[in-house]
């Protein structure tokens, strides 16, 4: 007797692909892996999707729509309803942050642009809700807090914590949405591209590769692209780096060492745990705003490292987060480890997302505004800035 084909097979395929793409990365998940996860042959998979890129589009679209659905039921100004519904829908599609920030770049430009428009439309809906709930909020703060609230949702993709209810997520979203950060100036145009360059050819190549990896993804960047960015032939890169992987590993190592140096200086100068944590928030913000491409590469491209480097980077990430958790536990000993981890990852994700948003990252005062948000999310008083 032939087995009956399930009516929801397309949905099962999307669910399996969502898990594999978010866990292993689009480049590392084969169609045969997805078919095996559903318990079907590859030919059956291709009856529903013409190829892996088409499947990726379906996965990202479904995750984006499902996650953002919670933004729309609340009436004007119903902030508590808004964060409750959005926290629930974000938790149900917690993979969205990774899928959007890391994997969606593999989509054709037109599809990516269309999904980006939907995300920006959702952000404008959220901004409208904040304006209705807080009529005196100026546009600059509305933009920051709406992106920050979306950042809370995005952070869930990077958390390896079981959350049985959306209550904590809703509290963190509300904390961001009701914050009153210091004033922000008008966005400043960035320095003209190429206004100042490294004298060292090796450093110029590393900087160009880091920017390209962050903006387009490691898999989409060739050595020829990197060479062209600094005006040399791609093959000339071999005078400075052994391979494209060597470029990526060097960039990741550079970022890792920068974070550890900052951490060591914070601990050496701190008077107490709370002061150290506040100072660490500040140092991370400053680094992310100045070196946003480096932060992005560490967060999104480490999956492309060779195994030994990838394992070392993952261990670094665990160790680095553990330092934050140690400080937070010393300040709030009653806070559960799961809640502490969620709060720390939320701060890092919100900072990273704002650093990658030029209209916000170039506003005078954004560093101070982010510091206040970070301290509030960690339940810290925001004392005067360190020297």
Automatic annotation (TrEMBL):
Q: Which GO terms describe its molecular function?
A: DNA-binding transcription factor activity; transcription cis-regulatory region binding
Listed SUPFAM superfamilies: Homeodomain-like (SSF46689)
The record's keywords, sorted A to Z, are: DNA-binding, Transcription, Transcription regulation
Domain HTH tetR-type stretches: 7-67, 199-259
Reading the lineage from the top rank, the first entry is: Bacteria
- Fetch the InterPro entries from UniProt: Homeodomain-like_sf (IPR009057), HTH-type_TetR-like_transc_reg (IPR050109), HTH_TetR (IPR001647)
Q: Which residues bind DNA?
A: 30-49, 222-241
- Which PANTHER family does this entry report, sorted A to Z? HTH-TYPE TRANSCRIPTIONAL REGULATOR BETI, HTH-TYPE TRANSCRIPTIONAL REGULATOR RUTR
- Identification of the protein by name: HTH tetR-type domain-containing protein
């Amino acid at each position: 007797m032939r087995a009956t084909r399930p009516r929801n097979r397309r949905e099962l395929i999307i669910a399996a692909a969502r898990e594999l793409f978010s866990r292993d990365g689009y480049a590392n998940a084969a169609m045969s892996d997805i078919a095996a996860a559903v318990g079907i042959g590859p030919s059956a998979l291709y009856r529903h999707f013409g190829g892996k890129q088409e499947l990726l589009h379906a996965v990202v679209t479904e995750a984006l729509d499902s996650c953002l659905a919670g933004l729309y039921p609340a009436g004007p100004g119903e902030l508590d309803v808004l964060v409750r519904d959005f926290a629930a829908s974000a938790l149900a599609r917690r993979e969205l942050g990774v899928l959007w920030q890391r994997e969606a770049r593999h989509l054709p430009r037109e599809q990516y642009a269309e999904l980006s428009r939907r995300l920006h439309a959702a952000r404008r809906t959220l901004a409208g809700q904040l304006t209705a709930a807080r009529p005196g909020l100026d546009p600059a703060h509305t933009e920051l807090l709406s992106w920050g609230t979306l950042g809370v949702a995005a952070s869930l993709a990077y958390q390896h914590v079981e959350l049985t209810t959306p209550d904590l997520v809703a509290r963190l979203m509300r904390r961001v949405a009701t914050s009153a950060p210091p004033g922000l100036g008008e966005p400043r145009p960035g320095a003209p591209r190429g206004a100042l360059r490294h004298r060292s050819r090796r450093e110029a190549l590393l900087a160009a590769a880091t920017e390209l990896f962050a903006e387009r993804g490691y898999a989409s960047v060739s050595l020829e692209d990197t060479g062209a960015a600094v005006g040399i032939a791609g093959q000339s890169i071999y005078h400075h780096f052994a391979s494209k992987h060597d470029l990526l590993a060097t960039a990741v190592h550079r970022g890792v060492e920068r974070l550890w140096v900052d951490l060591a200086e914070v601990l050496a100068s701190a008077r107490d745990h709370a002061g150290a944590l506040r100072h660490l928030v500040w140092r991370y913000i400053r680094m992310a705003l100045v070196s946003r491409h480096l932060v992005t590469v560490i967060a999104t491209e480490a999956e492309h490292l060779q195994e030994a480097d990838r394992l070392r980077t993952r261990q670094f990430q665990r160790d680095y987060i553990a330092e934050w958790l140690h400080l937070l536990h010393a300040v709030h000993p009653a806070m559960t480890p799961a809640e502490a981890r969620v709060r720390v990852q939320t701060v890092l994700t919100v900072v990273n997302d704002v650093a990658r948003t030029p209209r916000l990252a170039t506003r005078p005062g954004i560093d101070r505004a982010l510091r206040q948000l970070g301290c509030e999310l960690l339940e810290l008083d925001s004392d005067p800035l360190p020297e």
